[in-house]
Amino acid sequence: MATATVTMKELQSPVEPTWCPGCGDYGILNAVKRAMVQLGLRPHEVFFVSGIGCGSKLPDYIRANGFNSLHGRPVPIAQGFKLAHHDMKVIIVDGDGDNYGIGGNHWLHIMRRNPDITHIVQNNMVYGLTKGQYAPTSMKGYVSTTSPEGTIEWPVNPIAIALAAGATFVARGFSGDPKHLADLIAKGIQHKGYALIDVFQPCVIFNRINTYDWFRERIYKLDEDPTYDPRDRDAAWEKAHEWGDRIPVGVFYINEDAPTLEEQIPALAEKPLYQHEIPPKAEELEALKRAFM
Amino acid sequence: MIKNDVAFKLGGEAGQGVESSGMGFAKAIARAGLYIFGVQDYMSRIRGGHNWYQVRVAERQLYSHEPHIQLLIAFDERTVSEHLHEVVEGGGVLYDDTFKVDADAIKAHGAIPMPMPLLTIAEEVGGNKLMMNTAAVAAAAGIMEFDLSYIEQVIRDNFGRRKGSDIADRNIRVADAAYEEARKRYAHLFEWKLEAVPNAPQRMVINGNQALGFGALAAGCKFVASYPMTPASSLFEFMCAQARRFGIVVRQTEDEISGLLHCIGAAHAGVRAFACTSGGGFSLMVESLSLAGSTETPVVIVLAQRPGPATGLPTRTGQEDLLFALHAGHGEFPRAVVAPGTIEQCFYEMARAFNLAEKYQMPVIVFTDNFLANSIRAVEPEAFDVQKVAREIDRGKLILPHEHGKIEQAVTNGYRRYEFTEDGISLRIPPGHPKAIYSVAGEEHLPEGFIDWEETAENRNRMMQKRMRKMTVAAHADMRLPEFYGPDDAEVTLVCWGSSYGPVLEAVDTLNRNGMRANMLHFVDIHPLDWDRVADILGSCRSWVAVEGNYTGQLARWIRMNTGLKADGVIARYDGRPLNPTYIIEHLNRVLTRV
Ligand SMILES: Cc1ncc(C[n+]2csc(CCOP(=O)(O)OP(=O)(O)O)c2C)c(N)n1
Ligand code: SF4
């Protein structure tokens, strides 16, 4: 881990955020920067990949490397990049529609693979950028322009799905508490393997139900309970289903023993792929020719 | 006696080893110094059905198969009924003597029935009826008096020399017995013979997909991500098999969308990457193709065609996706489309695709199809000039993050990933260096890479023009015009692209032998091109007929769209079967009478 000192100012992007005043995405941006400062991660050591959505604009708003991709598609781009440049910190930032909806299949599979990637999902339980349609995370009965009589689908439970799919770090944060969120993000970055951080991110324009106050009234911190052991998968499973009057945030689950995707690929043992010399030695290619004779 | 000019076909059910036997026989013949052309036909099923493998042999290089054969080798009864009509006058039909085969029908057709106790030999000598295919191949060799030792070598290669495993020995005993018996019974009746060419050089026996993979390796490809789909799977599997030896990363992803996006991620980090798929998978990649276009990410996509629509004919061939690939993607962006026609071209064009992709920072689509992907030929190892490929590697305006000195020199005033330049190509420094920190976007962006929040018309125009300028530069600097084969004062020019090369070439040779002056104009590079010059070339032809593996004449349409010139006719094959010279000549006559 880098030990350089990094300041919030250094992470300041020349681009001003275009988010609505009061949007939960500001808290996430703030927490991401704080986490980088905490860990001493310099801008050139980090690569942010986002999809499309309000929150996915984040790579432009922080001074680091970024890739603003397609709706639902940052997850595979991040994996390809990580395999090609595995000593870089790769952080995916996307929305709940992005990751739990259109990109759901990619998400399922990144969890099985366990690359050393941190994944921050801005969960506002609504579609922000397209102006307020219901999201896969919207609560049952949520009324929106595309669900005028209320949704009839169950919401996705990101924590339970992540546990079921084998994610090795599963956490939930709240953008109204950037300090706590920064801690979670820092832990996720430090975790060796795939880290999901689902973040409650109030959309102050379209989601009039799940507001800052709504979350504040309900959430409590798992880390404040000394009896909770995030290495206990069964306990995590139980907490994953807690919803309603009391909603847990914090680290649900950590598995530090699983090898990462990169560690299991022989080609990456010596140095990152992008530093490999090309082309291969002519003798190797000549030997391959002989295999065809 | 006719020496070293023969075609034979093995046929049977899936699971009977038709392909491996055909391939093994072809390899043995190539080791004896002869040229071969092998083509397979199989059904989309794992057991049963009907598969065949056809091999043509000569002392000169071959580029196509033909519909007629001299020897039919039947692993089942159906093979005889399905293919008897292809056997020439005086040819032979070899089959197991327990099969219910109408020998009189074979005789009436003018061919020689050659029943053999293949099953009995396999069971009695080898102890296993599965060795019937060894017996059949050896019997065929006996009939053609081909030196059995070449077949024994291949058996040893295939079954290994492992101690304690006597499979190879038993197969060889089966081969010896079948060979002797067949030679005794039928060699004197069969005119066509195979004889080793003394001191012939060693040649590779390789198919189009393997040649594409070889080209990728030689060009320094380090990353492959795909999802299996026929007929691209064997290329993907080839790369998987080479991963350890060449230190490359190969990933089987959850779908084709992910496959191409993995490649975009890897390429963004500065690694040469490709994805391979067929039409259905390419459909899924289309949105990401557009992202590669917008972010100017160099990726290569091998589009191995099979007939559509939808799942179409999964194991057969066609050239139906040309216009799709040329237009795939929302919005307008630069891309290159190339279509190698031979196994040698597969090797070089695949390598060149990476150069085009990196030099112009754009996606490049390399076409193949089931016919080219799976047909085998014997080629000189020197034809795969790996040193030449290495010398020609061109990574364009790329500086890798660990090349500190170069970055210090190039970046004096801040790094702008999409700097406006005269040739439209900007300096590319993948993320990782403190002097080159930037964010890119698929959304329309500023020269720095940031999204253009103001969406100004001026930036949009300049950015579009910058990207599209690359096409003009590439068309003149790198893309190759179609090439003629055959006499230059031809009455008719057969215009084709990609894998039609071989069948059209041989059709042209035959036409000229028979007194009609014809030539071929073959397109490898299809986009971008200097269309004024293409128009001049076509304008100099007396008449031109497109020969294509599709219904609508897609190349002819592309040419008309770009030059205004209309073909005098189209020979269109869309039944899922590969073109062959006889087919082309027959249809040419029909097209010409209509002209
Ligand atoms: C393929 C595709 N479909 C639809 C869209 C339109 N679209 C843009 S953002 C978005 C949803 C955004 O929701 P979310 O991911 O939750 O992000 P938020 O805006 O709420 O932060 C949609 C549907 C698109 N850009 N691409
Ligand atoms: S619409 Fe909602 S999510 Fe989007 S910027 Fe505004 S408040 Fe934030």
Automatic annotation (TrEMBL), chain A:
GO annotation terms (biological process): cellular respiration
InterPro entries xrefs: 2-oxoacid:Fd_oxidoreductase, OFOB, PFO_beta_C, THDP-binding, TPP_enzyme_TPP-bd
UniProt cross-references to Pfam families, sorted A to Z: PFO_beta_C, TPP_enzyme_C
Keywords: Iron, Iron-sulfur, Magnesium, Metal-binding, Oxidoreductase, Thiamine pyrophosphate
SUPFAM superfamilies (alphabetical): Thiamin diphosphate-binding fold (THDP-binding) (SSF52518)
Ranges where the Pyruvate ferredoxin oxidoreductase beta subunit C-terminal domain occurs: 203-269
Coiled-coil segments on the chain, per record: none
Domain of life from the UniProt record: Bacteria
GO molecular-function terms, A-Z: 2-oxoglutarate synthase activity; iron-sulfur cluster binding; metal ion binding; thiamine pyrophosphate binding
CDD domains: TPP_OGFOR
Cofactor or coenzyme needed: Mg(2+); [4Fe-4S] cluster; thiamine diphosphate
Thiamine pyrophosphate enzyme TPP-binding domain ranges (all copies): 59-199
EC number(s) recorded for this UniProt protein: 1.2.7.3
Protein name from the UniProt record: 2-oxoglutarate oxidoreductase subunit KorB
Automatic annotation (TrEMBL), chain B:
Residue ranges occupied by any Pyruvate flavodoxin/ferredoxin oxidoreductase pyrimidine binding domain in the UniProt entry: 215-397
Span of domain Pyruvate/ketoisovalerate oxidoreductase catalytic: 14-180
Gene3D superfamilies named among the record's database cross-references: 3.40.50.920, 3.40.50.970, Pyruvate-ferredoxin oxidoreductase, PFOR, domain III (3.40.920.10)
Keywords on record: Oxidoreductase
Gene Ontology molecular functions: 2-oxoglutarate synthase activity
InterPro entries: 2-oxoacid/accept_OxRdtase_asu, Pyruvate:ferred/Flavod_OxRd, Pyrv/ketoisovalerate_OxRed_cat, Pyrv_Fd/Flavodoxin_OxRdtase_N, Pyrv_flavodox_OxRed_cen, THDP-binding, Transketo_C/PFOR_II, Transketolase_C
GO biological process, one term: response to oxidative stress
Keyword Oxidoreductase included in the entry's annotation: yes
Entry EC number(s): 1.2.7.3
Keyword field contains Cytoplasm: no
Domain Transketolase C-terminal residues, every copy: 489-551
Protein name: 2-oxoglutarate oxidoreductase subunit KorA
Pfam families: POR (PF01558), POR_N (PF01855), Transketolase_C (PF02780)
